[in-house]
């Protein structure tokens, strides 16, 4: 069953060719633009990095994210909400705390889009 899920993720990445492979269609560009717009803010980029770099658990409590910034907790929550709305992360409330994780396949999809084929680099 997990292999089937991996195949679906690979198919999603295939529908979005690498930047240098072919021009993007309107729908693909719109979807990827949401990701990049959300990551275009330094605070959100740092939050995404902190969440994505989480070890074995793959999730991080908002109580661990907030002290890393010189911003109020509501401001951090707003940035996290924008990352969620863009489809980069998801969360779950557990008691008084909220835990965040990167959605499966998102980073791979962004990496595949930005990747340059090795053959093109060798020809240069």
From TrEMBL:
Cited CDD domains: HTH_ARSR
Location of the HTH arsR-type domain: 24-121
One function term, GO molecular function aspect: DNA-binding transcription factor activity
Gene3D superfamilies: Winged helix-like DNA-binding domain superfamily/Winged helix DNA-binding domain
Keywords: DNA-binding, Transcription, Transcription regulation
Domain of life: Bacteria
Cited Pfam families: HTH_5 (PF01022)
Matches recorded under PROSITE patterns: HTH_ARSR_2
NCBIfam families noted in UniProt: HTH_metalloreg
Full protein name: Transcriptional regulator
Gene source species: Streptomyces cadmiisoli
